[in-house]
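Per reviewer request, we include the raw input and output of the structure prediction for the construct analysed in the revised manuscript.
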Amino acid sequence: MVKKIASGPIFLLVILGVLCVLVVKKERLFMILEFSEKGIVFFPDPTLIGTPADYGMEYEEVWFAAADGVKLHGWWVPKKDAPVFLWFHGNGGNISHRLENIKLLLDLVEVTVFIFDYREYGRSEGRISREGTYLDAAAAYQYVAEGRKVAGSNIVLFGRSLGTALATDLALKAPCRSLILESAYTDSQEMARLYLPFLFDWRPKVPYDNLGKIGRVRVPVMVIHGEDDEIIPLDMGRRVFEAAAEPKEFYLIPGSHHNDTYLVGGKAYFERLRSFIHRGRE
């Protein structure tokens, strides 16, 4: 008679083996997704297509370093005796794709513009990552506050699309005059579910989270959204606005999509910005 081997230990060994395989596969999947963020979340363009000089603006080339040593590039476009409009741009292109918008801000809103590129965008060095964008945002603020010696009361944080989460995060950590969010999303997890419902937000430890943070911001908040935004649903912008504390205002631009807010909004767009930014200064 053959002795029966206990099934319990064998079963446990089989389960352990399966779990090991799954862990290995999960780690490989994590690595694949980690490397794929550049083509899913970030779309850097290293080539500048122009400079502020092409639009008749005086400017300074600025180089500064993030906390991890990555060298970043930006433009300081001055307006005398004006607050600083610190711009955190979206996930595509680079600062040179915002030149027309910069010119209109300078002329119609009367602000000094400081716009910079995240790592791997434009002339900035390094490799793009979520962690890196937070370091880059903090370094840009530090450059304005310490390098240019601008008081927080004269710094307006402006985030657009991807950059809204960076601006919101900074508004909790550093003194500022006000916070402007254009085409804001709720958080990276909800965006992942929207565009990749079969996956998940594979960077939960490094989230982009407007909805979870905006309620703790204690400066005036303006939320701008295109009525027909095809990338970030209008509902997300409304929810971010509703979660914000007073004082706040919501500016809906009828007929505008994701990338044409200032064009469709026209003169009224810049008048709204000017009124919000300069309120109490004039």
